[in-house]
Amino acid sequence: MKQAVRFASTPRGRVAYSVVGSGPPLVYLLGWVSHLGLVWDVPAHRGFVEALARRYTVIRYDKLGCGLSDRGRAEFTLESELEVLGALIGQLGLKRYSLFGSCEGGQVAAAHAVRHPDAVASLLLYGSCARGEDLAPEPVRQSILSLIGAHWGMGSRVLADVWLPGASAELTDAFARLQRAAATAETAAALLDMFYRIDVRYLLSEVQAPTLVMHRRGSRAVPFELGRELASLIPGAQFVALEGRMQPIYAEGFEGAASTILAFLGDQGGLRPASGGGGLTEREVQVVDLIAEGLTNASIARVLGVSVRTVDAHVEHVRAKLGVRSRAQMAVWASEQRLSRR
């Protein structure tokens, strides 16, 4: 699959985002620092995203201050993260979508789900916690932040060892280089400090979306018991323990992690990918799915990264193949396809 990177304007700056795959939208909040251009060249990460993208439109973005997004940033708070996420979703015209958050992205995703219960169809959290200060004792947290600021090369290597325990020297070095390319020392430290400061315990009981919480049993970066606590605070949440020690979800057995996510999403009635039918192509099925979620042709064009004229053509082809006239009839067809797969 090819990754298309584009830019969205937010009140706080331009955010780089990518769209891969077809099907209902799945917004993926990457953890800590990221670089869409470089991480796509990591085979395991790419394989993980592609596995999800075979059934969903996966939307990822670099936080402000990181990767291909605007590097200037002054505020590092939960509110600023929510503002940027909301602006991106608004620009893409998404009316209903699933959210997948990793590390502090999980905290942001949970808070967004509470504020937008009618929009979030499913919530998936990985390697996260309810309160960031529980990640490590205060002296340890301050030591890590000081090391990043004083020597980003050494700090990135220490964090790579924490995130990828037992990995080869080659993999650890590559991960450390990616961290340094993704953000400056100042931004990396500020984002990690933000993770330490966020506390969403007070709002987790208000999450209404069906929720899946995943966590590595042997994670050093985010202890396993914190993931279990997170799941216990969300009403009805499913908790899945993933084997291994490496924090990135794609770093160990990404096929199993992707299968777990797809199985969970498939069990939810709100956003299932419609099966093919009526001679529709994969892209046409994707367009019908997005129409069923209430998106306009202009919004669909932004999500898929194509022109409005191209979407208009797809819609006309769908009308002809299904023998329907209205968008409502297309939505009914998509709903019938979903019901037939239950």
Produce a short descriptive summary.
The chain is 48% helix and 14% strand. The chain has helices at residues 36-39, 43-53, 78-92, 104-115, 138-150, 152-163, 169-182, 185-197, 224-232, 254-267, 282-292, 297-304, 308-322, 327-340, and strands at 4-10, 13-20, 25-29, 57-61, 97-102, 120-126, 211-216, 238-242.
- How much is the radius of gyration in Å? 20 Å
* Uncertain residue segments: none
- Describe the main β-sheet briefly: 8 strands, mixed
Number of helices: 14
Strand content: 5-15%
Number of domains: 2
> Overall mean pLDDT score?
90
Q: Walk across the major sheet and give the strand order.
A: 1-2-4-3-5-6-7-8
CATH superfamily of the largest domain: Alpha/Beta hydrolase fold, catalytic domain
Order of helical and strand elements: EEEHHEHEHEHHHHEHEHHHHH
Classify the fold: give the CATH topology of the largest domain: Rossmann fold
Oligomer: single chain
Q: Distance between termini? A: 28 Å
Work out the number of β strands. 8
Name the shape in a single word. globular
- What is the structural class? alpha/beta
Helix content: 40-55%
Using the coordinates above, name the CATH class of the largest domain. Alpha Beta
CATH architecture descriptor of the largest domain: 3-Layer(aba) Sandwich
Task: Give your account of this protein's structure.
The protein is α/β, with parallel strands linked by helices and 342 residues long. The chain folds into 2 domains: 4-135 and 200-267, 3-Layer(aba) Sandwich (Rossmann fold), CATH 3.40.50.1820; 282-340, Winged helix-like DNA-binding domain superfamily/Winged helix DNA-binding domain (Arc Repressor Mutant, subunit A). The chain is built from 14 helices and 8 strands. The two termini are 28 Å apart. The mean pLDDT is 90.
